[in-house]
Design goal:
Helices cover about 40% and strands about 20% of the residues. The protein is of the alpha/beta class. The chain is globular.
């Protein structure tokens, strides 16, 4: 079965798939963004919270006892690639935005 690591804020994103009978196993980790704050209202706190996830993802991966084969991560979580290497897993970056955004981000002076 598929294993997916998600934050508390995104827990409901996979409920529909589970209700359809797709065998997802979810591991929930804290995202460190206070409930009373809007996630995008304080971008600095949000990006700091992304870095704080690494230790929790590492512990979760260790607890999976080798059953994971790949880490699929958002490009903002660059630490996930190093974590995959440490655990001898493949890693894949997911780019959820348009190719135009990617180009602007990586070619700002053109």
């Amino acid at each position: 079965s598929w294993q997916k690591i998600i934050t508390e804020a995104n827990d409901n994103s996979f409920t529909h798939a589970q209700n359809l009978g797709i065998p997802l196993r979810l591991g929930i980790i804290p995202d460190y963004v206070a409930d009373h704050l809007q996630r995008w209202a304080n971008m600095r706190e949000f990006f700091v919270s992304l870095d704080n996830m690494e230790i929790h993802v590492s512990k979760l991966m260790t607890n999976l006892n080798g059953s994971a084969i790949c880490i699929i991560t958002n490009i903002a979580l660059k630490w996930a690639v190093n974590l995959a290497r440490k655990q001898t897993l493949q890693s894949v970056f997911l780019w959820p935005m348009s190719v135009t955004n990617f180009s602007i981000l990586y070619h700002p002076n053109t």
